[in-house]
Design a protein that fits this description.
Helices cover about 5% and strands about 45% of the residues. By secondary structure, the protein is mainly beta. Strands 2, 4, 5, 6, 9, 10 and 11 form a seven-stranded mixed β-sheet that branches.
Length: about 130
C-alpha cells in the first residue's frame, strides 16, 4: 500500500513557476513508477508526466513538454513536478499517482488513469492571466 500526499500548489501569475512535491509512504517507493495527472474544471483528467522507478526515463504530455520537469528522490520517497512558464490553461487540480511494475513505453498505457493504482488527494494550481 502506498499513500501519496501532494504539496506546493497555489496561485501564480502567467509566466511564473511552481514546484509540486509528492511525499509517498511505504518502503517500496523506489520500485514504483510515479506520475502526475491534472483535472481542470469541466474537463477530463489528463496525463501530465511520469517517471521510471530509477528516475532515468520519463514521459510528458505535449502540452507541458519543455516547460515541466518531473524528478524523484528515492532516498526521500518524494517525486517532484517543476512547472515553468505557466499558462492560464495549466490551471487544474494536480494529482500524484503511482503504480508498481513496468515503465510503459506505449502512451496507450501510461496516459490512462486506470494504469495507476495509487492516487493522492490533489493540490490546486491556479495561473492568473
Amino acid at each position: 500500500q502506498v499513500q501519496l500526499v501532494e504539496s506546493g500548489g497555489g496561485l501564480v501569475q502567467a509566466g511564473g513557476s511552481l514546484r509540486l512535491s509528492c511525499a509517498a509512504s511505504g518502503r517500496t517507493f523506489s520500485s514504483h513508477v510515479m506520475g502526475w495527472f491534472r483535472q481542470a474544471p469541466g474537463k477530463e483528467r489528463e496525463f501530465v508526466a511520469d517517471i521510471s522507478s530509477g528516475g532515468g526515463s520519463s514521459h510528458y504530455a505535449d502540452s507541458v513538454k519543455d516547460r515541466f520537469t518531473i524528478s524523484r528522490d528515492n532516498a526521500k520517497n518524494t517525486v517532484y513536478l517543476q512547472m515553468n512558464s505557466l499558462k492560464p490553461e495549466d490551471t487544474a487540480v494536480y494529482y500524484c499517482v503511482a503504480r508498481e511494475g513496468t515503465f510503459y513505453r506505449s502512451s496507450y498505457f501510461y496516459t490512462k488513469s486506470n494504469s495507476y493504482a495509487y492516487w493522492g488527494q490533489g493540490t490546486q494550481v491556479t495561473v492568473s492571466s
